[in-house]
Amino acid sequence: MVKTIEYLDGVVRMIDQTRLPNETVFVDCKTIEDVGNAIRTMIIRGAPAIGVAAAMGISLGANSINATGYDAFFAQLAKQCDALGQARPTAVNLKWAIDRMLTVTKAHNHLPVAELKQRLKQEAMAIYHEDIATNEKMGGFGQSLIADGNTILTHCNAGALATAGFGTALGVVRAAVNAGKNVRVLANETRPFLQGARLTAWELKEDNIPVKLITDNMCGHFMRKQEIDVVVVGADRIAANGDVANKIGTYMVAVMARQHGIPFYVAAPISTLDLTLASGDDIPIEERSADEVVTLNKHRIAPEGVEAAHPAFDITPNEFVTAIITEQGIARPPYNESLKALAGKA
Ligand SMILES: CSC[C@@H](O)[C@@H](O)C(=O)COP(=O)(O)O
């Protein structure tokens, strides 16, 4: 499988997810601003991948600073981080990665700036490697919830492309396959950005994992026909009470799953928890350009001048979430207690 992101000498290289599956093109980011732009335009997307990209971008930013004294260095780095933090609002992993990089900077304020820059590069690489290990652990816990022969519905792309590798929701699928279970995936296409059609279908096909693409309005039909055993999705931010922000359309899937008695699982690393927020009402929902709604793969499908809305995420209330799979174990309701306990172990 191709790498979603890598940090080469002075360059953060990403596969351009806006051009998949038709073209496999890589984008080289040479500055923190390039990385911010790649996050904003969704060249790289998915909560954990955004966090990894941000950390690598901050390392690039640090390397570009000429100041030799710590205070001036930190002031410039913090300013760059403020700008990077504006790239996308919903996935908390962006803020998480920025906070972690700034904390490491402060903890090493005694180092000469040249060494501090090296330390920040090490931290970015640690975040990258930890993300893959985290997903593998999460997969291990998650696959215990999947039975041989299951058909798994997923929404958006919470796979290798949305992380440093292996994936969260698709990590559960991969771990089930690795455990010898025969599973297949139904992938919602995920209008309007088509992460399911373009990315989930692509990466599962690359790995020879059986996948069938459906449009977003088909999942109720397949649930009623008892052709879906379990739903597994990722998350962009999870509030203390277990309310989940994920790609627009997730809420609809969760309500349908409840109606049909199908378990609805969310797979997300501890870095996606935002225990400072009491409920999903406090999670900022990104409003993206209406152009992405009135066009389909850059082809206009709606009349000129029509109004369109584009909330890019929705909130699934905790009552619809059967369990939350993390790298520290599986949280069950009531989430206020179970999530706190798992976060405490991290
Ligand atoms: C492991 S990724 C989990 C979520 O980030 C994913 O499901 C999602 O909603 C991504 O949204 P995107 O707008 O493509 O960044």
Automatic annotation (TrEMBL):
Record gene name: mtnA
Domain of life: Bacteria
Residues annotated to bind substrate: 45-47, 88, 195, 246-247
Origin species: Nitrospina watsonii
Sites marked Transition state stabilizer: 156
EC number: 5.3.1.23
SUPFAM superfamilies: NagB/RpiA/CoA transferase-like
Phylogenetic placement of the source organism: Bacteria, Pseudomonadati, Nitrospinota/Tectimicrobiota group, Nitrospinota, Nitrospinia
UniProt KW keywords: Amino-acid biosynthesis, Isomerase, Methionine biosynthesis
Gene Ontology molecular functions: S-methyl-5-thioribose-1-phosphate isomerase activity
Protein name, as recorded: Methylthioribose-1-phosphate isomerase
Function: Catalyzes the interconversion of methylthioribose-1-phosphate (MTR-1-P) into methylthioribulose-1-phosphate (MTRu-1-P).
Family: Belongs to the EIF-2B alpha/beta/delta subunits family. MtnA subfamily.
Catalytic activity: 5-(methylsulfanyl)-alpha-D-ribose 1-phosphate = 5-(methylsulfanyl)-D-ribulose 1-phosphate
